[in-house]
Amino acid sequence: MIQLDGYLNHLGLSAGYVVLFDRRSQPGLDPDGPLETRTSASGHTVTIARLAVPPLPESGTGALPG
């Protein structure tokens, strides 16, 4: 949040977004939904989006399938 606050100050913006990709096999369900809005220390409005994505299949190479 501190780093995003600095970027928003530098760009002269009043709001920004953070997107978190959750690969855990059983992510906890957020009763408020995937979006959350907070106010930073500098007064910026920050929207946080939490997105559940399926974990990558295990492979011995560590490479993406395809």
Residue-averaged pLDDT, rounded? 81
The amount of beta strand, in percent, is 25-35%
Major sheet: size, sense and barrel closure?
3 strands, mixed
Structural class: alpha+beta
What shape does the CA trace take?
elongated
Number of strands: 3
If you compute it from the alpha carbons, what radius of gyration comes out, rounded to the nearest whole angstrom? 16 Å
| Oligomeric category | single chain
Sheet with the most strands: spatial strand order: 1-3-2
Terminus-to-terminus distance: 35 Å
Considering DSSP H and I runs of 4 or more, what fraction of the residues is helical? 10-25%
Instruction: Compute the number of helices.
Output: 1
Order of helices and strands: HEEE
Unreliable stretches: none
Could you explain the architecture of this structure?
This protein is of the alpha+beta class. The chain has a domain of about 40 residues. Helix content is about 15%, strand content about 30%. A 3-stranded mixed beta sheet has the order 1-3-2, with no helix packed on it. The radius of gyration is 16 Å and the shape is elongated.
Ordered list of secondary-structure elements with their pairings:
Layout: H1 2-11, E1 15-22, E2 35-39, E3 45-52
Parallel strand pairs: 1-3
Antiparallel strand pairs: 2-3
Task: Give a quick precis of the structure.
With 66 residues, the chain is an alpha+beta fold. It has a domain at 14-52.
